[in-house]
UniProtKB/TrEMBL annotation:
Name of the protein this chain belongs to: Sugar ABC transporter ATP-binding protein
Highest taxon in the source lineage: Bacteria
Classification via CDD domains: ABC_Carb_Monos_I
Entry keyword set: ATP-binding, Nucleotide-binding
Entry annotated with the keyword Ubl conjugation: no
Cited PROSITE patterns: ABC_TRANSPORTER_2
Entries under InterPro entries matching the protein: AAA+_ATPase, ABC_carbohydrate_import_ATPase, ABC_transporter-like_ATP-bd, P-loop_NTPase
Location of the ABC transporter domain: 10-248
Gene Ontology molecular function: ATP binding; ATP hydrolysis activity
Keyword Nuclease: no
Length: 264
């Protein structure tokens, strides 16, 4: 796919999604650039999960345009998103507790033939994923069942699995919800390293402390619509909360000059 210079990695324009008579998303816009962390925030029912499903192909949009590197694309199925380089880690992590660490990382992407898996190659590849050591949650070994791991260790395994395919955009859904203070700080450091490696990161979170710590931009949804785009360094937490609750109406038109400059 040809890359358009200066184009966002992912651009969404006029995204609409409805379930029967209910409009879950209405004319939603979102930009994510490579090497950028964008936080997606909003109250419960704001449409965050629905928008993530549109991006990952789980629930395609009914209307609107999705662009990848400046070119229109259709994300109708999860495999379409994966082919583009979009990976996601959901809050429930979707790990198989009876399998070991290596088995979870390579689940569905095992190395070797149909009859015999190349366990040695898979374990060696797993050891090369630096994310497994990044949270200081050192694993006893790569063959312990996931059921025996702590919340931080499980989170690490889920992210390692997502990074196995070397994605360009990583979606993290409430990644620190089950982590302690120390593990949260280490995880936020990991997000910064992923950004430094040039990945685009979409951070879906209710924790505005995490958002202020690592995000570059914040996109606010309210009742299925955009209600503000903010630059984190120049925006107070109070402004973001006000936009999330609808106390201030920062509804965004179909055009904007730059992220962080809300057009009223």
């Amino acid at each position: 796919m040809v890359h358009v210079p200066n184009a966002p990695l992912l651009a969404m324009r006029g995204i609409c999604k409805r379930f029967g008579a209910v409009w879950a998303l209405s004319d939603v816009e979102l930009d994510i650039h490579a090497g950028e962390v964008v936080a997606l925030v909003g109250d419960n029912g704001a449409g965050k999960s629905t928008l993530v499903k549109v991006i990952t192909g789980v629930g395609p949009a009914d209307e609107g345009v999705v662009e990848w590197n400046g070119r229109p694309v259709r994300i109708a199925r999860p495999r379409d998103a994966q082919a583009l380089g979009i990976a996601s880690v959901y809050q429930d992590l979707a790990l198989c507790e009876t399998l070991d660490v290596v088995g979870n990382i390579f689940l569905g992407h095992e190395l070797g033939g149909r009859a015999v898996l190349d366990e040695v190659a898979m374990e060696r590849r797993a050891q090369e994923l630096d994310v497994l050591e990044s949270l200081s949650t050192r694993l006893p070994n790569f063959r312990v069942p996931v059921a025996t791991l702590s919340a931080g260790q499980r989170q690490t395994v889920a992210i390692a699995r997502a990074l196995l395919g070397e994605p360009r955009l990583l979606i993290l859904d409430e990644p620190t919800a089950a982590l302690g203070v120390r593990q949260t700080a280490q995880f936020l450091d990991l997000i910064e390293r992923l950004r430094d490696r040039g990945l685009g990161v979409l951070l879906v979170s209710h924790n505005l402390g995490d958002v202020k710590a690592v995000a570059d931009q914040v996109a606010v949804l309210h009742l299925g619509r955009n209600n503000g785009f903010f630059s984190v360094p120049t925006t107070s937490q109070e402004q973001i909360v006000s936009s999330m609750t609808g106390a201030t109406n920062n509804a965004v038109a179909h055009r904007r000059d730059r992220w962080g400059e809300v057009l009223r």
